[in-house]
Amino acid sequence: MIDYVKGRVVHWDTEYVVVDVRDIGYRVFTPNPYSFAKSDDDVTIFTHHHVREDATYLFGFTTREEQSMFRKLLEVSGIGPRVALGILAGGKPESVAAAIKQENIGFLTKLPGIGKKTAQRMVLDLKDKLDAFHTGFASAAVGLATMDDLFSEPEGNADGGKAWQEAREALMALGYTSAELERAWHSLQETVKPDETVDSLMKRALQQLFKG
């Protein structure tokens, strides 16, 4: 089991980073690859070593909390590594844990790749297994309590169609400001395709936000 890797990030892609560890490059799939883009120093990436019959993958995280939540999510029927990564790209561990503990299906279904049935399974399978994620529950609960207001009264630029509005509302619920999202949209709008999905727009917007 590879618990973490420490080295210099030498390459970024939309889904992974490559970490040079003593002249060996490890490809590590991570929720937000561009969160590592601002440092030329060595970084520590906490990993989950995932082995299948046909492949071996490393999934990486900036904190132990993300690593632990990722492993908890894999316990849910129907959630694989890719969906678990998408969840952590869309929400912080304490916010996801708070939503599960509060059975907040509305919040969970705003996360990438999560429908109502999967959200219900998350609550059923994990509600009593998240005591370790108590840190930040109070502030997370405040944010979740106002979600309906955020979703019913979005502010700012109304351009971009329904997909962007849904992506924007979900990102606002995760703590991003209108100004930050307007800047992200400004960078994205010329390349948005008519059939682009909410999940795709959220992922691309997050890349822009982490680039700063």
UniProtKB/TrEMBL annotation:
<keyword id="KW-0227">DNA damage</keyword>
<comment type="similarity">
    <text>Belongs to the RuvA family.</text>
</comment>
<dbReference type="InterPro" id="IPR003583">
    <property type="entry name" value="Hlx-hairpin-Hlx_DNA-bd_motif"/>
</dbReference>
<feature type="region of interest" description="Domain III">
    <location>
        <begin position="159"/>
        <end position="212"/>
    </location>
</feature>
<dbReference type="GO" id="GO:0003678">
    <property type="term" value="F:DNA helicase activity"/>
</dbReference>
<dbReference type="InterPro" id="IPR010994">
    <property type="entry name" value="RuvA_2-like"/>
</dbReference>
<dbReference type="Pfam" id="PF01330">
    <property type="entry name" value="RuvA_N"/>
</dbReference>
<dbReference type="Pfam" id="PF07499">
    <property type="entry name" value="RuvA_C"/>
</dbReference>
<keyword id="KW-0233">DNA recombination</keyword>
<feature type="domain" description="Helix-hairpin-helix DNA-binding motif class 1">
    <location>
        <begin position="71"/>
        <end position="90"/>
    </location>
</feature>
<dbReference type="InterPro" id="IPR011114">
    <property type="entry name" value="RuvA_C"/>
</dbReference>
<dbReference type="Pfam" id="PF14520">
    <property type="entry name" value="HHH_5"/>
</dbReference>
<keyword id="KW-0238">DNA-binding</keyword>
<dbReference type="InterPro" id="IPR000085">
    <property type="entry name" value="RuvA"/>
</dbReference>
<comment type="function">
    <text>The RuvA-RuvB-RuvC complex processes Holliday junction (HJ) DNA during genetic recombination and DNA repair, while the RuvA-RuvB complex plays an important role in the rescue of blocked DNA replication forks via replication fork reversal (RFR). RuvA specifically binds to HJ cruciform DNA, conferring on it an open structure. The RuvB hexamer acts as an ATP-dependent pump, pulling dsDNA into and through the RuvAB complex. HJ branch migration allows RuvC to scan DNA until it finds its consensus sequence, where it cleaves and resolves the cruciform DNA.</text>
</comment>
<comment type="subunit">
    <text>Homotetramer. Forms an RuvA(8)-RuvB(12)-Holliday junction (HJ) complex. HJ DNA is sandwiched between 2 RuvA tetramers; dsDNA enters through RuvA and exits via RuvB. An RuvB hexamer assembles on each DNA strand where it exits the tetramer. Each RuvB hexamer is contacted by two RuvA subunits (via domain III) on 2 adjacent RuvB subunits; this complex drives branch migration. In the full resolvosome a probable DNA-RuvA(4)-RuvB(12)-RuvC(2) complex forms which resolves the HJ.</text>
</comment>
<keyword id="KW-0963">Cytoplasm</keyword>
<keyword id="KW-0234">DNA repair</keyword>
<dbReference type="GO" id="GO:0016787">
    <property type="term" value="F:hydrolase activity"/>
</dbReference>
<dbReference type="InterPro" id="IPR013849">
    <property type="entry name" value="DNA_helicase_Holl-junc_RuvA_I"/>
</dbReference>
<keyword id="KW-0378">Hydrolase</keyword>
<protein>
    <recommendedName>
        <fullName>Holliday junction branch migration complex subunit RuvA</fullName>
    </recommendedName>
</protein>
<dbReference type="InterPro" id="IPR036267">
    <property type="entry name" value="RuvA_C_sf"/>
</dbReference>
<dbReference type="InterPro" id="IPR012340">
    <property type="entry name" value="NA-bd_OB-fold"/>
</dbReference>
<feature type="domain" description="Helix-hairpin-helix DNA-binding motif class 1">
    <location>
        <begin position="106"/>
        <end position="125"/>
    </location>
</feature>
